[in-house]
Structures are given as structure tokens and as C-alpha cells.
Amino acid sequence: MGAERNALRASRASLALYLVFLVPLPAAAAACIWFADANSIKQVNTDDNSVVAEAPLGDPRRLVMNDTDCGVWALRRTDRRLIKFDPAGIAVRDVNVAQLDPGLTKVLRVRLDPFDDSLWVSGDQRIAHLNADATSLIAAFTAPAEIRRFRIGLDQKLWVLGKRKLWRFNRQGKLIEERLLDAVLQGEARHFVVDELREAIWVAGDQQIAKMSTQSAGAPTIVANIPEGITGFALDAVTGRVWFGRPSFLDALNPDGTPFASVDLAALGLPGL
Fold first, then answer.
1. Which of 4, 21, 77, 194 would be 61's cystine partner, CB 3.0–4.6 Å?
2. pLDDT band at 4 (very low <50, low <70, confident <90, very high)
3. Closest CA to 207 of 222, 194, 219
């Protein structure tokens, strides 16, 4: 199992391109796609697949966009900076997150709240909430343990996944809920999505997928066992289906946990997911 995981990590690390984000613009406009490699970020015209904007940027960790224009925020982990680029790829904001919150000694993830364009940034255990221009700190706090992933709810509260727990915080950083995962999952939690329209939370470990309710604190229920290992996880918010990757396959579960589809990526010339 360890060798298999190492192989999966190596295949991910070998990808030359990463951090792809798609955000639809108002009616009649094309979608914006920004992506990053190790040295720059680029915007692609979806009509002819041409690069229409490019900006040099070393070590971009994450990209986030709002749905009002083609601008993009880039989080750079090496110097803990948030840099905003306009649709032409010109840097219009450059923020040292560490100056806003000295407790954030490392930056690993960033998300944008679509309701007010405020930004959430996290490190190993620290979380900072910034205003829309990243000029001031709304809140900063430390999670009870290491952070794996986090998501912003429709109520603008924060769901945070740890190795063996799931926490919920309000916008001021107050812990309002904690759920244990290790009573069900074998090993550590790796991925999660929240389907608030159907009041469901999906959590994936190395080889298991579990589901629980957003409304009750009951233990999660295992809905799938994936011996090959889970390489990725995503929610289709329209249908409520969950898609997950395993080596050379892309699979989906219906909202009730039953299988929906399985795509053989190797047969499509896309091996090594």
C-alpha cells in the first residue's frame, strides 16, 4: 500500500500544469480559464484555446477568482504573498499576508467567499480571514489540529477538515461544531465536499468514502470502499453526484451513494490519474 501511494504522489508531482480554475462571466461572454505552471500564470481564450494574458510568477500555490471579471488572485507560498492580477495579467495588488497575521507562518490554501469576495487563507493549522481587497484582517485563529482542506458554506461559515476530525467555524473564527471521523474511516481523512442543497457531507480517506448529514452530528456512513486508493474528489453541485479518481479511472456516485458511472481514462489515452 505504501509503494502504491508513493507512486500516486510521484505521478501527481510530474504534472507540468496545475491549478486550473473556470469561472463563467455574465451572459454572452466566454468563460475565463486561468492556469499556472511553475513559473507563470496564463489566461486562455476558450473559443480558440489561445493564451490571451500571461504574467510571470514563481511558485504559485493556488489561484482563485470571483464571477464578476477575469481577474485572479494568486497565492505564493514561498513568501506568503497574495497577488491580484487584472484580466490583462497586470498585478494590481500585492499583499504580504504575514504582515496582516504574523501567526500565519506558512500559506498553503486560499478560497474566495462568493458572497462578499472576502478571502480565507490557511497554513498548517492557522486560518486568516481577509477583506475583499486583502487590506485588513477580519479574523484569525488556530484550528485544533492540522488542516487538510477547508470550504466556505452557503451561510458563509467555514468547514475545516483535519486528519481525523471535521470542524465548523463562524466568520469570526469561533468553533461551533466538531465531528469525529476516525470511528468510521480507516486511516486519515484526505478529501471532503459539502452538498448543502441536499444537506450532505462527503468525506474520503485513502480507500473509503463516507457520507453524513449537515444537520445532525451522527457518525458518517461508509458508502464505498476503493482498494486501489482515491486520488481526487469533487462534487457536481447540480446533480449532487460525487466524482472521485482512482488509478486510471474516474468514477461517480449518486446522491444516495449508489454507483453512477465509471470512466476508463487509460482507454481515452489518459493513464496515471
1. 77
2. very low
3. 222
- Domain that includes residue 168, residue range: 159-273
Query: Do 113 and 179 sit in the same domain of this protein?
Result: no
Q: Round to whole Å and give the CA distance between 183 and 173.
A: 26
Q: Higher-confidence residue: 38 or 141?
A: 141
Neighbours of 68 (CB within 10 A): 11
**Whole-number percent of the chain with pLDDT over 90:** 69
Contacts with 95 (C-beta within 8 Å, 6 or more apart), sequence order:
81, 82, 83, 84, 130, 134, 135
CB 189 within 8 A of CB 166: yes
Give the pLDDT score at 272.
60
Cell triple for residue 261? 458511472
Distance of alpha carbon 195 from alpha carbon 156, whole angstroms: 14
Strand positions, DSSP E, 65-157 = 72-76, 81-85, 91-96, 109-112, 119-122, 126-130, 137-142, 147-152
Domain total of the chain: 2
